[in-house]
Amino acid sequence: MTSGTVDGLHYELHGGPVAGREVVLLSSGLGGSGAFWAPQMAALTERWPVVLYDHRGTGRSVRELPDDYAVAHMAEDMVKVMDALALPKAHVVGHAAGGNAGLQLALDQPDRLGKLVVVNGWSRPDPHIRRCFDTRIHLLNDSGPEAYVHAQPIFLYPADWISRNHARLQAEEPHHVAGFPPREVMLARINALLAFDVDARLEEITHRVLISASADDMLVPMSCSQRLAGRLPNADYQVAAWGGHGFTVTDPETFNEGLIKFLEGE
To answer: Can you tell me the distance from the alpha carbon of 151 to that of 126, in angstroms, rounded to the nearest whole number?
Structure first.
């Protein structure tokens, strides 16, 4: 594993070079930590070199954000990581915020993108997403990071999975609170996602794209993924019946199988 920092962004390259294979870059959701992808790493690194990075403002990356922080900055940060590793392009797998940044990258710098996987993402603000984010904003502003982190599984996972994994979630809470970004950073990241809107430009994205969704996502309605799949010119669409917003965590075997099939395909 090779690690480094570029313009304040912490990144890691896992696995050695694979002949004829482009690197797979994994971009997380709102939480921003590359560690989110732990359930995918073994399956992916058997086949491709894999890049993880912590989004600007999160994890081991610099905590400061530009004043006008937007999803376009998230896309620029992907390119900075690729440049640091001398990668002309990469396949991008993005969850929610990371998938939205992948769509932005496809529009802003299409030559840097191979295939794109958007997991529970969206092309424009949705009333339900806005309601969920408004609730999280109120939790953060009125009750603080502890309440925000405690409520987070409700948005991410199915109720039965939360019940079965109660002890695990309780044990993880102090770690998540200790690593929580400054309040203004998290608010800026949420507002960037609420302002994201590339709906009118979807037909410009001609890359091979996998739209991956879960039918029981509590945070992002499946209709958002259906819209992406219906409007993108070259999209595949996969739906998991169960797993919630974070079904990469709750049902990694199903997700990994579909991901590898897409990336392996011509």
So the answer is: 21
Alpha carbon 60 to its chain's center? 17
Tokens of 203: 């037909």
pTM assigned to the model:
0.98
**Tokens 């990994």 sit at which residue?**
256
Give 182-213 pLDDT, tens digit per residue.
Answer: 999 999 999 999 999 999 999 999 999 999 99
Residue found by looking up tokens 């050695």 in the block: 16
What is the rounded average pLDDT of the residues 20-29?
91
- Tens-place pLDDT, residues 242-264: 999 999 999 999 999 999 999 99
d(CA 118, CA 101): 9
Q: What is the secondary structure of 85-143 as a DSSP string?
A: TT-S-EEEEEETHHHHHHHHHHHH-GGGEEEEEEES--SS--HHHHHHHHHHHHHHHHH
CA distance 71 to 106: 12
Residue 65's φ and ψ, nearest 5 degrees, are: -125, 155
Distance in angstroms (rounded) separating the CA atoms of residues 197 and 123: 6
Is residue 43 within 8 Å of 260, Cβ to Cβ?
Answer: yes
Q: Count helices and strands (H / E) in the chain.
A: 11, 8
Q: Where are the alpha helices (DSSP H) in 51-126?
A: 71-84, 97-108
Which residues fall within 8 angstroms of residue 206, CB to CB, at 6 or more apart? 110, 233, 234
Q: Are 228 and 201 in contact (CB under 8 A)?
A: no
Q: Please answer whether residues 70 and 192 qualify as being in contact, where contact means their C-beta atoms are separated by less than 8 angstroms.
A: yes
